[in-house]
């Protein structure tokens, strides 16, 4: 690796600051991930470059403005009727073309072209190779995309560009514009826009052309080092994630107690190495839930009443509710096949269909009118009102008492019931009702107990949390995926004895608390690393 300035080799700072999802494309590998420290390093390189602090300077620089170093390349109207052609010899670039594969820095191809004759007829401005273009309208401004034209190209009205004057290199303008956050100069709220009159007065510094090329060469060299650092870090992070996933998978796939113990010992011996990121802690928490519902988290007690006897008591309570007219008789549930039994049951457990142990209903499918002028109104909760594990009643629509009572005849919501999202991108999100506040529900599954003393609500909540992951993968439908009530009722679950349900919840809560503490420590360390990267950048600029 090339030597470069001393500050670039603080690898512990640049590569340990938090890895984060990235929006838009940059100079890195384009896989949607960015390392915060390396992102700051790139910003530092650009900052020092345009300030003349990146390499030793031989001559004084001129203080000037953007409008003085180039001529503005303005966009043209492009009627829909003219779009879609690929037969013209002039490219017609839009903001969307900047996202095309291969156009990460230079515009080599566009989705539309135009002929010279059509360009004359439409009075389209055609700009020369070497012009640097960028978005000038809307949210695209904040993406800070910059692209260089490689052949005569027209641009649409959502773009603006700068064509270098004599003595100014294209790469220098590209570097300057990459450094400037143009969103700071936008005006307008609903549709922000950049005004040419504002941009042309942005102050910049201009070295002579030879110096421009020297600086650009050094920037490219250092950016290549950044790319190497980021690739190495991301590859290591991805390998770490795969390793953690594999090792946690050995726990859930263990075939015996001895096998499970051996697999756990391998993880425990290197716990501090494996669980060092927020993502790895989240994976651990999900594995703990999976182990809990498989009976591998707490030991079985032979003195517990077996689940087979518990099922008889649940069925008796269910029959009583049917006889009293409080619930309807179910359609017979299908027998559970061997293929549906995904693991070896612990002693005292039973395979059951979900409807056997909990009443699976849903809310209304109607759209009651908003309560208006009512002295008493009630929230109508949908999955959109689920918020941080609870219900945000402030966002729920209000309906009349009459509509609430009508919905409650079929879907009365009570304390400790579980609401479960069935539709859309948040399938599997669930909340437990924590108080006796009356409200109605719409388009969510409602899990009610035949007898809360026979099915521990907090165990069912843990089961639902674990279930959500697999349901999200198996949802049907395209733009609006969903899970049917029938599918929920026929889900196969492993039912533990009632005392073990309580022990499982206690152990899960204990372990989740430890995971949260560890995750908090990791988050604090990551934030400290980010602050350290910021400080190094500030010191390098000030020096």
TrEMBL record:
<keyword id="KW-0238">DNA-binding</keyword>
<protein>
    <submittedName>
        <fullName>Type I restriction enzyme, S subunit</fullName>
    </submittedName>
</protein>
<keyword id="KW-0680">Restriction system</keyword>
<dbReference type="InterPro" id="IPR000055">
    <property type="entry name" value="Restrct_endonuc_typeI_TRD"/>
</dbReference>
<feature type="domain" description="Type I restriction modification DNA specificity">
    <location>
        <begin position="60"/>
        <end position="238"/>
    </location>
</feature>
<dbReference type="InterPro" id="IPR051212">
    <property type="entry name" value="Type-I_RE_S_subunit"/>
</dbReference>
<comment type="similarity">
    <text>Belongs to the type-I restriction system S methylase family.</text>
</comment>
<dbReference type="InterPro" id="IPR044946">
    <property type="entry name" value="Restrct_endonuc_typeI_TRD_sf"/>
</dbReference>
<dbReference type="GO" id="GO:0009307">
    <property type="term" value="P:DNA restriction-modification system"/>
</dbReference>
<feature type="domain" description="Type I restriction modification DNA specificity">
    <location>
        <begin position="346"/>
        <end position="523"/>
    </location>
</feature>
<dbReference type="Pfam" id="PF01420">
    <property type="entry name" value="Methylase_S"/>
</dbReference>
<dbReference type="GO" id="GO:0003677">
    <property type="term" value="F:DNA binding"/>
</dbReference>
């Amino acid at each position: 690796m090339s030597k470069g300035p001393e500050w670039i080799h603080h690898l512990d700072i640049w590569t340990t600051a938090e890895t984060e999802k990235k929006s838009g494309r940059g100079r890195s590998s384009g896989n949607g991930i960015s390392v915060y420290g390396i992102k700051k390093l790139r910003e530092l390189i650009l900052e020092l470059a345009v300030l003349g602090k990146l390499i030793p300077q031989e001559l004084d620089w001129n203080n000037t403005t953007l409008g003085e170093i180039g001529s503005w390349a303005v966009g043209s109207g492009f009627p829909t009727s003219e779009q879609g052609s690929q037969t013209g010899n002039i490219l017609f670039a839009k903001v969307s073309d900047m996202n095309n594969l291969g156009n990460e820095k230079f515009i080599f191809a566009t989705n539309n072209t135009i002929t010279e004759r059509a360009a004359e007829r439409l009075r389209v401005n055609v700009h020369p190779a070497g012009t640097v273009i960028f978005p000038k309208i809307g949210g695209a401004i904040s993406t800070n995309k910059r692209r260089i034209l490689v052949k005569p190209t027209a641009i649409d009205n959502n773009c603006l560009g700068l064509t270098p004057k004599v003595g100014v290199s294209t790469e220098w303008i590209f570097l300057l514009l990459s450094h400037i956050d143009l969103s700071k100069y936008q005006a307008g709220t609903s549709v922000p826009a950049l005004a040419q009159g504002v941009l042309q007065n942005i102050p910049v510094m201009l070295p002579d052309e030879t110096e421009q090329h020297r600086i650009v060469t050094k920037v490219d060299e250092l950016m290549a080092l950044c790319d190497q650092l980021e690739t190495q870090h991301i590859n290591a992070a991805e390998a770490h994630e795969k390793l953690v996933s594999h090792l946690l998978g050995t726990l859930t796939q263990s075939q015996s107690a001895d096998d499970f113990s051996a697999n756990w010992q391998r993880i425990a011996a290197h716990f501090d190495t494996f669980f060092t990121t927020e993502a790895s802690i989240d994976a651990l928490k999900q594995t703990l839930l999976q182990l809990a519902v498989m009976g591998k988290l707490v030991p079985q007690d032979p003195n517990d009443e077996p689940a087979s006897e518990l099922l008889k008591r649940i069925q008796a309570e269910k029959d009583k509710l049917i006889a009293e007219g409080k619930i309807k008789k179910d359609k017979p549930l299908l027998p559970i096949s061997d293929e549906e039994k995904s693991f070896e049951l612990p002693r005292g457990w039973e395979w059951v269909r979900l409807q056997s142990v909990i009443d699976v209903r849903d809310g209304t499918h109607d759209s009651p009118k908003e309560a208006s002028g009512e002295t008493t109104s009630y929230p109508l909760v949908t999955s959109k009102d689920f918020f941080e594990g609870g219900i945000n009643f402030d966002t729920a629509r209000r309906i009349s008492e009459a509509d609430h009572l009508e919905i409650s005849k079929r879907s009365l919501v009570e304390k400790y019931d579980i609401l479960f999202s069935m539709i859309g991108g948040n399938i599997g999100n669930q909340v437990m009702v924590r108080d006796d506040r009356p409200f109605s529900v719409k388009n969510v599954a409602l899990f009610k107990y035949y007898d809360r003393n026979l099915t521990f609500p907090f165990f069912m909540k843990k089961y639902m949390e674990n279930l959500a992951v697999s349901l999200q993968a198996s949802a049907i439908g395209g733009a609006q995926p969903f899970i049917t009530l029938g599918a929920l009722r026929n889900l196969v679950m492993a039912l533990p004895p009632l005392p073990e349900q309580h022990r499982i919840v206690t152990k899960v809560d204990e372990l989740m608390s430890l995971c949260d503490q560890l995750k908090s420590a990791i988050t604090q360390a990551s934030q400290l690393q980010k602050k350290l990267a910021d400080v190094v950048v500030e010191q390098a600029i000030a020096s």
